[in-house]
Amino acid sequence: MYENQILSEKPAHSQGSARAGWLAAAVALPLMVTFAAYGVAEFGPRESIHVTPVTTTLEAPELVARIADTPFWREEVIRSGDTLGALIARLGVDDDAAKDFIRTDTAAKPLYELHPGRVIRAQTTTDGHLLQLSYVTAAGNQITVRPAGSGFRVNQAPAEMARGTSFKSGVIHSSLFAATDRAELPDEVTRQLISIFEGEIDFHRRLRKGDRFGVVYETYTLDGQEQKTGRILAAEFVNAGRKLSAVWYESRPGDGAYYSLKGESLKKSFLQTPVEFSRVSSGFSMRFHPILKEWRAHKGIDYAAPTGTRVRAASDGTVTFVGRKGAYGNAIEIKHQGAYSTLYGHLNGFASGLRAGQRVSQGDIIGFVGSTGRATGPHLHYEFKIAGNQVDPSKLNLPKSRTLDPREFARFRPYSDQMQAQLNLLARVELARAD
Ligand SMILES: [Zn+2]
Fold first, then answer.
1. In angstroms, what is the span from residue 342 Cα to ligand 1's centroid?
2. 250 - beta bridge partners?
């Protein structure tokens, strides 16, 4: 009986650990493959790569190869409490002239800005004479010491950053920002994510528990440490079961936009929400619910948001009214293409210098949320009109956005397929983690 029990338990145990092992492999392996295949490789068509002109990019494998090919390079990670003298000794530098120079020359001073975790490198001859000492300061300057004539010389230049990509995904449980924080998505990338999808998703009113996102974005690193983020290259957002995808694509150099997998531009003729969706304004409506009314009751949409939240032009157009307007309080009206116009009410204030007759572009800040006029709390009253009559914009088929022509789509397709594969992989990893 006792023996039987042990026998019957054993297979269950080994099954359990085998499953755990498989899961771990499923999570770890595809990511490694991904990084090897795409992590630092160039992404898509050359003209679609956005590189800021101030930095020269150096791909990481190139850097590693260069170091490996050259004999006697050593590198040390700076530890807390390290001195430059101790580091130079650990780097195998046995060169009194070099040590004297580094100790006394004012140009070598930045070498003393030691930060734990950063890397310092040296190249020496077999008997320890210094050929090159290299260190990138926290400010991003590469300090290099080399022999010159009978002495040494210090060179200081902006360090070369390696361009790579990062993949992050998350599921919304309480709020979008809680989810992006948990996914460790940088705020600047979160801002881009919202901006990409806000033509399709009303972030103030339509986010649901269980919504999820995946993002592929550019990163710039120095010595393996992320220095800054670049553009989102691809993203997806599943909102209330509806999956939206976006891929950055430049049809001509410098003329890029986000497109759906069908090649339709995600830039819509009208924003879903004129109120900027931010860490502060998100979730505000929950605390301020009583002010929300049915659209039918007063022919507008109310967006509860803290006083001072930025209000943006819903579309390109011309300002036709700025000022006090009865129950609307401080209000702005904008005339758009065709017979469309929009009205923004109860504002706390206007963007400085805003006046009637001024041209505005979609997304321009025009004013700030307030509670002027007949309002019981801070909110934006937003009206969407056709030929002067209020309509519910969510029930309209608004003008179509730009679509890639067949020739462009043929170039776009392989690139978007590759991005889609990345995002699918991310989603699988996220699912495995949630299991
Ligand atoms: Zn209202």
1. 13
2. 256
Residue 50's pLDDT is what? Answer: 34
What's the CA-to-centroid distance between 358 and ligand 1, angstroms?
A: 25
> pLDDT tens digits, residue range 25-44?
333 333 332 222 222 223 33
For residue 311, report the distance from its CA to the centre of ligand 1, in Å: 15
3-state SS assignment for residue 278: coil
96: tokens are: 């009194």
> Domain boundaries in the chain?
2-39, 42-58+161-267+401-435, 63-158, 271-399
Residue with the two structure tokens 């978007």: 416
When mean pLDDT is compared over 160-164, 183-187, 426-430, the highest value belongs to 183-187
Å from CA of 302 to ligand 1 middle: 5
Return the pLDDT at 146.
94
Q: Does ipTM surpass 0.95 in this model?
A: yes
Span from the CA of 18 to the centroid of ligand 1 (angstroms): 59
Q: Does 63-158 match 271-399 in CATH topology?
A: no
CATH topology of domain 42-58+161-267+401-435: Nuclear Transport Factor 2; Chain: A, (3.10.450)
What are residue 111's phi and psi, to 5 degrees? -65, -20
Burial class (CB in 10 A: 0-12, 13-18, 19+), 32: exposed
Rounded to the nearest angstrom, the distance between the alpha carbon of 298 and the centre of ligand 1 is: 6
Model confidence band, residue 288 (pLDDT cutoffs 50, 70, 90): very low
Fold category of 63-158 in CATH: Nuclear Transport Factor 2; Chain: A, (3.10.450)
Structure token digits, residue 174: 């309480």
Buried b (16+ CB within 10 A) or exposed e, 336-355: beeebbbbbbbbbebbeebe
The rounded mean pLDDT for the chain is 79
Cα of 293 vs centre of ligand 1, distance in Å, is 8
Rounded distance from Cα 291 to ligand 1 centre (Å): 8
pLDDT(127) > 60: yes
Whether the per-residue pLDDT at 54 is higher than 50: the answer is: no
**Length of the chain, in residues:** 435
Report how far ligand 1's centroid is from the alpha carbon of 201 (Å): 20
Q: Of 3.40.1440.60, 3.40.720.10, 1.10.260.40, 2.70.70.10, which CATH number belongs to 271-399?
A: 2.70.70.10
Residue 218 has pLDDT above 60, yes or no: yes
**DSSP structure string for 127-162:** T--EEEEEEE-TTSEEEEEEEETTEEEEEEEEPPBE
Give the residue-averaged pLDDT of 101-117. 90
Ligand 1 mean position, distance from CA 200 (Å): 22
Q: 382 alpha carbon to ligand 1 midpoint, in Å?
A: 7
